[in-house]
């Protein structure tokens, strides 16, 4: 068997699994293979697929979708539908394209949600007797979705929209949400199946879906399902097929796909010839996480990225279907959606905004926002930000700004108060939200609103605010955790179940030895990350913070302010006392790293990393620190101190000399920097304990601030 080492199970389970590394999973795999043969037939009898059309003709030309020739009446929405003609996997792909109105075909077609992939590698299909070049991933989808004996009617953006007609593209994108809502179902095409992986992944999902249904049924009867003790759970434990082969697909990371599945009446997840109902898939993954088939945290600290994108879909569905909390404006709703989708990628940078408009609770035109492919990405981003600020009277969108500084990759012409939505890496979570992702209840400027003026051709944001404090000291930055270094090769852990006892023991020894001495890359990624927290603690103690509000602190005031700053004001469900107890429990787990730093062991050395990691594993052996779940807003930030002695959580770009200000319309203190031209640059948000709920705000002190 193979002992898999992935980012979803490198934790205390890495060691405890050694004792069960030889449990027989072959029966589960064989069951999956039997299921595959029932679906596809014996391998020896399968004929190769046709990968390209053999017959081609003249290039297909679109008839304009908008105009009198379409026959569309006023108030109707014209669209094209693709009729996929029947055939076998050995036939050319032949289709018919028809122009209709959405209102006339509700529930009479399926919409396809997929990733375009490499559009430079194109292949022909036949449409209405002519040839259209499409991407290879789309051709593969059509090959697998085609029926043998009947037509299949689909809406596919790359084919049903004339992508070369900007006017048509803008109008179709504006109504795309309705196109997906009107479909009978949305087909999520993940891509071709992978030999040996996909069959196991789908079998795992179906097994978990069955367990989930059984658990729900038994819970209604007042009984409990001991699935964790069942042999099925032993087969599934530490599964890698689902997170890697299904959740690891590009589809989960694309901007458009979120809208496409969330607006669907029904979803079907398809990978090659395998398919499963979307709802069953979500139930299965949620149940697997609940059973800890996959671990929800890496070392109790880091959320495996495959599951981040899965959970984001559920959050977006909540924002779109259930709506935002009472009092949230339409502009606020759009800010929330943009923040939730910012890590999703798009080929066209403008689509990072346009792809979420269909998820709004109301028509985006109320915000004066329409898809515009004639303007540059910088102009689109600036225009949308200005509209959001003007329509809401709030500066919430500033929290999504990315601190580019002088980076040459920065989008040229973008003011500092406008977010650049292009980057998809982990960035600091806006302080607009608490650690659970809900909007913060406090307001640093007493629920004030701003009356913005956009000067200098729209590049300068003119608002009002006043000084809070100046930054006099900063700590190191807590960077994004890079888990790329911790992917050890699976073949490092190959153990033949037919090995003799002596060879088995030797291989086990090599495995353990590799864990202790050969995992320097892993330690190199994790231990310095944890060491930043120890440095921050020293920073807080040395500062002796004087923050205004610390009502329940007893004894160690510096540490009380420190842990509340780490949490950015969020508390565990049990309130202050529970959160403080969780902090001190977590504080103990850093003891080994704290000791090594005290002994002045070189932090770059392998000794520091290895001993620190082993000590940390030992200290967390009995369970993960619940306090970690409150630290999500620390990533990509640094601690800071002010001239008045305030401890604060700052954006990573903050420097000594920057100014903390309270600005009308902002519920968070802002970090600003004076420019040589008399204007001010926006650097980011700051958490300043004791100044988050309006106690430090004085409207009479406000003056004009010009942010560029």
TrEMBL record:
InterPro entries: HET, HetReg/Transcr_Mod. Pfam families: HET, Het-6_barrel. Residues 109-260 form the Heterokaryon incompatibility domain. This is Heterokaryon incompatibility protein 6, OR allele. It comes from Coniochaeta hoffmannii.
């Amino acid at each position: 068997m193979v002992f898999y080492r992935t980012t979803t199970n490198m934790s205390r389970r890495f060691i405890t699994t050694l004792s069960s590394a030889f449990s027989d999973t072959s029966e589960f795999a064989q069951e999956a293979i039997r299921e595959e043969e029932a679906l596809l037939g014996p391998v020896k009898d399968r004929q190769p697929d046709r990968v390209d059309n053999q017959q081609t003709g003249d290039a297909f030309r679109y008839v304009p979708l908008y105009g009198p020739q379409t026959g569309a009446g006023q108030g109707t929405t014209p669209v094209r539908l693709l009729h996929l003609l029947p055939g076998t996997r050995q036939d050319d792909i032949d289709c018919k394209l028809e122009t209709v109105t959405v209102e006339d075909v509700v529930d009479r077609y399926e919409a396809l949600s997929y990733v375009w992939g490499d559009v430079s590698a194109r292949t022909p299909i036949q449409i209405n007797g002519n040839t259209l070049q499409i991407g290879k991933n789309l051709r593969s989808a059509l090959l697998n979705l085609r029926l043998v004996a009947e037509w299949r009617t689909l809406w596919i953006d790359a084919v049903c929209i004339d992508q070369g007609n900007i006017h048509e593209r803008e109008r179709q994108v504006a109504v795309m949400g309705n196109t997906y809502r009107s479909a009978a179902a949305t087909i999520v095409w993940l891509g071709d199946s992978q030999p040996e992986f996909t069959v196991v992944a789908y079998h795992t999902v179906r097994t978990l879906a069955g367990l989930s249904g059984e658990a729900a049924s038994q819970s209604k009867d007042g009984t409990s399902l001991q699935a964790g003790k069942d042999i099925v759970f032993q087969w599934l434990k530490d599964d890698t097929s689902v997170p890697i082969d299904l959740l690891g697909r590009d589809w989960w990371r694309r901007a458009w796909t979120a809208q496409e599945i969330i607006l669907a009446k029904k979803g079907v997840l398809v990978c090659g010839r395998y398919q499963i109902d979307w709802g069953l898939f979500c139930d299965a993954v949620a149940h697997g996480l609940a059973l800890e088939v996959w671990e929800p945290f890496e070392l109790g600290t880091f959320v495996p990225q495959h599951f981040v994108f899965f959970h984001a879909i559920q959050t977006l569905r909540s924002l779109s279907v259930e709506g935002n909390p009472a009092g949230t404006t339409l502009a606020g709703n759009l800010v929330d959606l943009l923040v939730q989708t910012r890590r999703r990628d798009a080929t066209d940078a403008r689509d990072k905004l346009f792809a979420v408009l269909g998820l709004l609770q109301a028509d985006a035109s109320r915000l004066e926002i329409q898809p515009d492919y004639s303007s540059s990405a910088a102009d689109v981003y600036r225009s949308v930000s200005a509209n959001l600020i003007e329509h809401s009277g709030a500066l919430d969108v500033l929290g999504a700004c990315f601190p580019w500084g002088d980076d040459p990759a920065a989008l040229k012409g973008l003011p500092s108060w406008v977010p650049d939505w292009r980057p998809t890496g982990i960035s600091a979570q806006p302080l607009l939200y608490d650690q659970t992702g809900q909007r913060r209840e406090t307001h640093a400027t007493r629920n004030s609103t701003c009356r913005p003026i956009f000067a200098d051709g729209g590049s300068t944001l003119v608002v009002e605010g006043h000084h809070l404090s100046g930054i006099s000291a900063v700590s190191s930055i807590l960077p994004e955790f890079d888990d790329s270094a911790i992917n050890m090769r699976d073949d490092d852990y190959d153990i033949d179940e037919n090995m003799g006892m002596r060879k088995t023991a030797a291989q086990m020894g090599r495995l353990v030895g590799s864990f202790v001495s050969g995992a320097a890359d892993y330690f190199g990624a994790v231990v310095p990350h944890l060491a930043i927290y120890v440095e921050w603690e020293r920073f807080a103690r040395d500062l002796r913070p004087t923050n205004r509000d610390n009502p329940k602190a007893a004894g160690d005031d510096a540490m009380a302010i420190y842990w509340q700053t780490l949490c950015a004001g969020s508390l565990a469900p049990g309130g202050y006392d529970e959160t403080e107890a969780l902090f001190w429990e977590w504080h103990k787990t850093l003891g080994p790293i704290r000791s090594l730093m005290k002994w002045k062991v070189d932090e770059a050395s392998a000794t520091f990393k290895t001993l620190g990691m082993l000590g940390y594993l030992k200290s967390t052996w009995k369970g993960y620190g619940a306090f970690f779940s409150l630290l999500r807003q620390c990533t990509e930030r640094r601690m800071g101190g002010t001239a008045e002695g305030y401890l604060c959580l700052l954006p990573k770009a903050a420097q000594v000399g920057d100014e903390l200000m309270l600005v009308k319309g902002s519920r968070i203190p802002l970090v600003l920097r004076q420019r040589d031209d008399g204007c001010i640059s926006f650097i980011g948000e700051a958490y300043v304990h004791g100044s988050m709920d309006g106690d430090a705000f004085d409207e009479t002190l406000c003056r004009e601030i010009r942010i560029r």
